[in-house]
Write a structure and sequence with these properties.
By secondary structure, the chain is an alpha+beta fold. It is 34% helix and 21% strand. The protein has helices at residues 2-23, 38-42, 56-70, 76-79, and strands at residues 80-82, 89-91, 97-106, 111-120, 134-135.
């Protein structure tokens, strides 16, 4: 049962990433007005292409629906984690949190092991890397 919930969480987060990517201006919706002006670019016209003519409203609605689904109780253990520095609760889907990564060479210098921890952006500079590791 836990594997199904985890798989569902990862599918929803992938969908959320695609929606955020589209809202940032990289829409791949063929019905978006953004694509209606591509033929003008071939004719060397320089129109100002702005994303968001027809699909932003639908994307925002989809993002809100996915966020409501990800707020369900069964996804809390995958979505929320404690900060490695201040030990307060943080949301992995929030843009104010980040992963602090650090590496350590293993088997000589041929391979590198990577580890990462979730922290708030303000706490990231306070994080002390374990001895023998270096910040990535």
């Amino acid at each position: 049962m836990n594997e199904k919930i985890r798989d569902e969480y990862y599918v929803l987060t992938e969908n959320l990433d695609e929606i955020d990517w589209a809202l940032d201006g990289n829409c791949n919706d063929i019905d978006c007005d953004h694509y209606m002006h591509k033929d003008l670019l071939k004719k060397k016209y320089k129109p100002v292409l702005k994303h968001g003519y027809s699909c932003v409203k639908g994307l925002r609605r989809d993002r809100a629906a996915v966020m409501r689904l990800l707020s369900m109780k069964k996804f809390r253990k995958y979505r929320f984690e404690k900060c490695a520095v201040c030990k307060k609760l943080l949301d992995k889907l929030d843009k104010h949190n980040k992963i602090v990564g650090f590496t350590k060479p293993i088997m000589g210098s041929k391979y590198v092991r990577w580890e990462g921890v979730w922290t708030h952006k303000g706490c990231a500079s306070k994080f002390k890397v374990p001895e023998g590791w270096k910040r990535f």
